Amino acid sequence: MSLPPSPPRASRAQEEAWMREAMTLAAQAARDGDVPVGALIIDPAGAIIGTGRNVRERDGDPAGHAEVVALRDAAAKRGTWRLTDCTLVVTLEPCPMCAGALMLARIARVVLGAWDDKLGACGSVWDLVRDRRATHRAEVIGGVLEDECAEQLRAFFAQHRLS
Fold it and tell me: Looking at 67, 139, 146, 148, which residue is catalytic?
């Protein structure tokens, strides 16, 4: 099976700019008591067409992960669930649920910040998005502003351990 071509890769500077926007969304999640994860969906022209942040605590939604929220936002704006030529930018490596959702949405590329050594499904614990048995696979670019993304998470959990 041949895979559709990925959209042209953005520059590292552009990936970092998007990641900073995702980190702003993550900070908003933290203010609501949610784990600080933020996500963007980028179209092939480089425009942000979907945004999301964790809303599990705020909305009482077990599927309220940043990636799922961003995918839903982008699909609603595009009028289709197929996001074949788009890039997901996310501050934390997607979990298996989110990796499955982005595969089903046909996301072409995942740009992630911090790796998740407990539940990561884009290369650290599992590699669902690049599994040869899958009908759709995504390119993964990891470690974009990794230290800053990881620090945002560490600070959140340190604060919640104190309270």
Answer: 67
